[in-house]
Write a structure and sequence with these properties.
two-stranded antiparallel sheet, about 25% helix, about 200 residues, 9 strands, alpha+beta, Protein Transport Mog1p, Chain A
């Protein structure tokens, strides 16, 4: 694994709905500016209010910064090697967490893509919706939408995954998100698709 150097990059992403936290792994030393996660959360909170030209009032920045910090700690604690994208239409929305990661290609393309997207997940409450998805940067991949039961909740979990195998780099790329709020994931669908199209790979 030591000779695998390909990493995810973002060709372009509309910053309006997203707060972006790169990998926090010490093995990926190009992102030291995010080491002070509290400072990042506060700066991002200020930007979220300013970008929408909204008045945060006396507590708005602190409230949003606290929300972002809890998300960072829950979904991308120190040492993680994936990207975390937090989707919010309004600064005070509960963010929808979306993760993206890259790794060495693990096997034959079709078999790998189905495995990475959990296209054949036997625990799905109904057959997953499987579609081809073309990215200008990563080529043709798969996207899968499925519902999962939860042992500790009566609500179903709505899950979306994208995956690609990029032969040029010998790399597999995966994006995933899940939420009980089906309406929320539907509302974010276009932004999620745009995010999937924006990811690319480079060799540092």
């Amino acid at each position: 694994m030591s000779d695998f150097f390909a990493v995810i990059d973002i060709e372009y992403i509309d910053p309006y709905p997203w707060a972006v936290l790169p990998p926090r792994s010490s093995d990926l030393g190009q992102f030291e500016e995010w080491d002070d996660i509290g400072a990042w959360c506060r700066s991002e909170a200020e930007d979220l209010w300013a970008d929408r030209e909204l008045d945060p009032g006396p507590n708005g920045v602190d409230f949003v910064a606290g929300t972002l910090l809890r998300c960072a700690e829950a979904f991308a604690p120190p040492g993680t090697d994936h990207w975390l994208f937090l989707h919010q239409d309004h600064p005070t929305d509960l963010p929808l967490p979306v993760c993206a990661t890259i790794g060495r290609s693990a096997g034959p393309r079709e078999e790998t893509l189905r495995a990475l997207t959990l296209a054949d997940d036997p625990s799905s409450v109904e057959p997953p919706v499987v579609k081809r998805f073309k990215s200008d940067h990563l080529g043709e991949g798969l996207t899968v939408f499925r519902y999962l039961p939860q042992a500790d909740s009566p609500h179903l979990l709505a899950c979306v995954r994208y995956a690609w195998q990029v032969e040029e780099y010998g790399a597999d790329v995966v994006i995933w998100t899940a939420t009980e709020d089906v309406t929320r994931i539907m509302q974010a669908a276009k932004d999620l698709e745009s995010l999937a199209r924006s990811l690319t790979i480079y060799d540092p």
